């Protein structure tokens, strides 16, 4: 129930719909009860069980006399109709009354469902928005250990379960209990003894039904986890289709997927078998209760003469009316157990603490005027340090290059400077302000990023380029494309700037995608540019075009270049050579060659290649 309470916090903005739903349900329950009670006076008159009331009755004002006043007035009204127009007219009158009562009941039922729909869908929208907000808010490190399919599952199928379980229960929280209360009140008015007898059996049947649903939560969680697993396989298959086909691994991935869906099939069968048992079990127990009432009430009518037949028939109708909400409430316990598992998975994300966050008094760094300094930092992803006592200074307008073998920690520097991760020891400063004291937004506004993997979105060229500058004009976009050596091919595309680049930019070549990434960084026009192996995945011709674009972009700009191909950084102001997270050499290109050390070996290996 704790999960339910937390999920219901999302209902606060929509409480007006909840109030209107409650009011509608009150009238629904009232007219539902009155509709069934209205049969009793008609039966009494038709069966002539009671002496006709000739004189119009008056109410004493005492609530204990309200039942007798109601019966007498109904008797008087119907007898008047019988005397004036005959029994058929009286029957028509009561039928019209019943129809009107049922019409009002259903009108208020529709109104209740109308208002609850706005509440449910509003909550659903807010839950999804909060999950997505949390996904983009959480640091990159959080997702390195998680599966994408798991997050997709939580924001889709888990939220859907919340809708079909917790949120569908909202209409039961008021509607069914009120129907029970009004119906039980009417039953007590008809016969206290018979109502107490009914109330003895209802809790027993409720306990039997609830015992069936005890394991639903654990089974539901298993089902959601397995759904997340097979969504992960689908996501990996779609993003790695070339590799799967190139290595003839289709059967291997099919087997993985079939195993996952097989496990999901077993869990869902077990879950649904148990869940589906609720309806027939509750119906059977309901029939048992009605049969016992027939036996017990029949004795009161036929043997004890403490209850008349028409009242007993009316009581039976009300008892049957009480079974519908009782059955709905019993099924609700199943849904709540199932929804608990999904709510737990959703709240697991929403309640995850974001350890990389702005301080309350974070500095708004408006510009970059002096230098970016990395001072004696240590950093580890897990246990071992990948950077050890690393320091560097990048003055405004300088280009500093980081080189070294794979795994030496070059890309980690880019992740730390942009504050995708925080250092374990030491500090990174921008104009003497520790970046942990600077707001993340203002820090990243000062930086442009071009990565090895050209990340484009399934959108137009225009929208991909303008990602960092919403109000960019067409002239500015074209100028950025020209600087990135990309306007030549973009202008030849079928719809120019409005051409869709496809999923991950797959309609373009590797070099074209990378030049669009550079154009995106150029248009943002940040004072600091970070290039993380921006040319390593390109062919020679594309590399030359991209390299020219990079040189155009880096003019009069502070740059940190992580380079795999050393030919691209020979003009850097400072080249830092890294090995296993430490600096082994640094200096200009010709100075490092003169040292005849690690850098020269790297240059020679590439020239031989």
Key descriptive features of the protein:
609 residues, alpha/beta, ABC transporter transmembrane region fold, Rossmann fold, 2 domains, six-stranded mixed β-sheet
Short summary of the structure?
The chain is an alpha/beta fold and 609 residues long. The chain is built from 22 helices and ten strands.
Outline the structure in words.
- The chain has two domains: 2-350, ABC transporter type 1, transmembrane domain (ABC transporter transmembrane region fold), CATH 1.20.1560.10; 371-608, P-loop containing nucleotide triphosphate hydrolases (Rossmann fold, 3-Layer(aba) Sandwich), CATH 3.40.50.
- Helices cover 63% and strands 10% of the residues.
- It is built from 22 helices and ten strands.
- Strands 6-7-8-3-9-10 form a six-stranded mixed beta sheet, sandwiched between helices. Strands 2-1-4-5 form a four-stranded antiparallel beta sheet, covered by helices on one side.
- Helix 20 (540-554) links the parallel strand 7 and strand 8 (558-562).
- Helix 3 (39-47) crosses helix 4 (66-85).
- It is elongated, with a radius of gyration of 37 Å.
Q: What is the element layout, followed by pairings?
A:
Layout: H1 2-8, H2 15-37, H3 39-47, H4 66-85, H5 87-137, H6 140-143, H7 148-190, H8 192-212, H9 216-239, H10 241-246, H11 250-276, H12 278-302, H13 309-350, E1 371-380, E2 385-395, E3 399-404, H14 410-417, E4 425-430, E5 433-434, H15 440-445, E6 447-450, H16 461-465, H17 474-483, H18 487-490, H19 510-524, E7 528-532, H20 540-554, E8 558-562, E9 574-579, E10 582-587, H21 589-595, H22 598-608
Helix pairs in contact: 1-13, 2-5, 2-7, 3-4, 3-13, 4-5, 5-7, 7-8, 7-9, 7-13, 8-12, 8-13, 9-11, 9-13, 12-13, 17-19, 19-20
């Amino acid at each position: 129930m704790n999960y339910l309470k937390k999920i219901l916090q999302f209902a606060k903005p929509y409480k007006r719909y909840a109030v209107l739903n409650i009011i509608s349900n009150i009238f629904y329950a009232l007219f539902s009860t009155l509709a069934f009670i209205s049969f009793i006076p008609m039966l009494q008159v038709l069966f002539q069980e009671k002496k006709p009331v000739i004189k119009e009755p008056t109410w004493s004002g005492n609530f204990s006399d309200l039942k007798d006043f109601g019966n007498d007035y109904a008797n008087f009204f119907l007898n008047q109709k019988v005397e004036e127009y005959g029994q058929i007219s009286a029957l028509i009158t009561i039928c019209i009354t019943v129809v009107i009562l049922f019409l009002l009941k259903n009108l208020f039922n529709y109104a209740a469902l109308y208002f609850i729909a706005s509440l449910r869908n509003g909550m659903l929208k807010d839950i999804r928005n909060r999950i997505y907000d949390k996904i983009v808010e959480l640091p990159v490190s959080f997702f390195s250990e998680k599966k994408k399919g798991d997050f997709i599952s939580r924001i889709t199928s888990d939220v859907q379960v919340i809708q079909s379980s917790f949120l569908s229960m909202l209409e039961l929280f008021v509607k069914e209990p009120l129907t029970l209360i009004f119906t039980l009140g009417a039953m007590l008015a008809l016969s206290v003894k018979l109502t107490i007898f009914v109330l003895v059996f209802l809790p027993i049947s409720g306990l039997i039904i609830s015992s069936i649903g005890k394991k639903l939560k654990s089974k539901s969680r298993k089902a959601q986890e397995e759904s997340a697993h097979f969504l992960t396989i689908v996501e990996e298959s779609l993003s790695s289709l070339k590799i799967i086909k190139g290595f003839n691994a289709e059967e291997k991935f099919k087997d993985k997927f079939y195993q996952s869906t097989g496990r999901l099939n077993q869990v869902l069968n077990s879950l649904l078998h148990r869940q589906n048992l609720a309806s027939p079990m509750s119906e059977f127990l309901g029939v048992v209760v009605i049969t016992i009432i027939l036996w017990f009430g029949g004795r009161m009518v036929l043997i004890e003469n403490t209850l008349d037949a028409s009242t007993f028939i009316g009581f039976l109708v009300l008892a049957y009316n009480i079974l519908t909400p009782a059955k709905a409430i019993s099924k609700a316990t199943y849904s709540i157990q199932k929804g608990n598992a999904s709510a737990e998975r959703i709240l697991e994300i929403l309640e995850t603490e974001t350890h990389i966050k702005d301080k309350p008094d974070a500095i708004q760094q408006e510009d970059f005027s002096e230098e970016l300094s990395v001072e004696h930092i240590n950093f580890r992803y897990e246990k071992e340090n990948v950077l050890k006592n690393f320091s560097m200074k990048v003055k405004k307008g300088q280009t500093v290059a980081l080189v070294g073998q794979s795994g030496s920690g070059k890309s980690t520097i880019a992740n730390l400077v942009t504050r995708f991760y925080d250092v374990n020891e030491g500090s990174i400063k921008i104009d003497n302000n520790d970046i942990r004291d600077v707001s993340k937004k203002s820090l990243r506004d000062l930086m442009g990023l071009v990565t090895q993997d050209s990340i484009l979105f399934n959108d137009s060229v225009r929208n991909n380029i303008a990602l960092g500058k919403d109000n960019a004009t067409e002239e500015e976009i074209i100028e950025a494309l020209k600087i990135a050596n990309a306007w030549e091919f973009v202008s030849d595309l079928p719809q120019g700037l409005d051409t869709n680049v496809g999923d991950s930019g797959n309609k373009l070549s590797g070099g074209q995608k990378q030049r669009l990434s550079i154009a995106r960084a150029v248009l943002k026009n940040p004072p600091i540019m970070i290039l993380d192996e921006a040319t390593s995945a390109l062919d020679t011709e594309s590399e030359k075009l991209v390299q020219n674009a990079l040189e155009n972009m880096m003019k009069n700009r502070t740059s940190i270049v992580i380079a795999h191909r050393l030919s691209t950084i020979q003009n850097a102001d400072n080249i830092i050579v890294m090995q296993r997270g430490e600096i082994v050499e640094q200096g200009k290109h010709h100075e490092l060659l003169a040292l005849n050390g690690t850098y020269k070996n790297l240059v020679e290996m590439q020239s031989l290649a």
